[in-house]
Amino acid sequence: MFQSEKSMTLIMLLVPFVWALSGVSAKYLSFYISEDEVVVYRFFLSALSTLTLLLWMKIPLKISLKNFVICILLAFFLIGNYRTYFMGMQRGAVGLGAALVTVLIPIFVYVMMIFSKKSKPVLKDWLALSIGAIGVALMLDIEQMNLDKLVSGGNIYFVLAGLTYAMFTVAASYMRNIHVLTINFYVCLIGFVIDWNLSYDSNHLFTLGTMDYIFWVNIFFVSFIAGTAITALYYMGIQIIGSKKSSAFSILTPFFAIALGAIFFGEMITIKNAIGILMAVIALFVLNDLKIKNMIPFR
To answer: In sequence order, what are the residues at sequence separation of 6 or more whose Cβ sits closer than 8 angstroms to the Cβ of residue 234?
Structure first.
């Protein structure tokens, strides 16, 4: 559809924008439903839309036993990510929260790669990690924080969201010979079955008929657009412009998130927070050479 590198580069600007906008949608959904509900609805709608896309693109659904077992593990990680991210949005700021999760994921991934001996850090990597850690501390206002503030302000949930998605990414890197949309389908399907049986109250189904258009627009956006369509677009971008250029667009997400938080909710950040974001983004530039197969973008 977008075969030229120039047109694909322009289209790829949608990716970080939609990732940031999904945080706004999550905030609006928090006014309507709990984390138990949003996880089930999002998994169901994402699995349905991904299956439709797989059939349309004629991508095989075949999966090996090893990949299926990893998908079960991935489903638990993604359940944790969806829950903690949503709980953070219930309590905290959209812009700073989405920015925080975005910068934490690659930092956590790189640290995990070091411990798993998948990556051998050099001096510039250690320097980038140090700059990133200081940047995250400034974003969190860590010197003013205690456990109660971390929980009530939502920041602890954003940190956990970044950690669980990093674990998801590292685990996904062990999968072989399978399309990313096939992974997405099985993870969402398994996650739906798990969460439906473990935490969902079926009585919530009766309340869906009372929801207004704001709820439906946002639940479809986070599931279909931010979940399935943008994932497909991201990997189309990798095929056309390459993985390094594609991953570089994710660095724009914190800036879009801060801007959208200000537009929709009048959120403001301090100079210290802004310096922290810039430091974390600089760290991401240095760590942008991560070589992880099947790295599924946060959405």
So the answer is: 12, 15, 246, 297
CA distance 81 to 77: 6
Residue 164 forms part of a structural domain: yes
- The domain of 217 spans 5-289
pLDDT score at 29: 97
* pTM across the whole model: 0.88
Give the integer Cα–Cα distance in Å for 263 and 212. Answer: 22
- Residue 243: which residues within 8 A CB-CB, separation 6 or more? none
- 10-residue averages of pLDDT along the chain (299 residues): 67 87 95 96 96 94 96 97 95 91 88 74 81 88 62 82 92 89 95 96 93 97 91 78 70 90 92 91 74 47
Return the amino acid letter for 92.
G
Tell me whether residue 294 is in a domain: no
166-178 per-residue burial string, b: 16 or more CB within 10 A, e: under 16: bbbbbbbbebeeb
Domain assignment present for residue 297? The answer is no
- Backbone φ, ψ for residue 149 (5° rounding): -70, -35
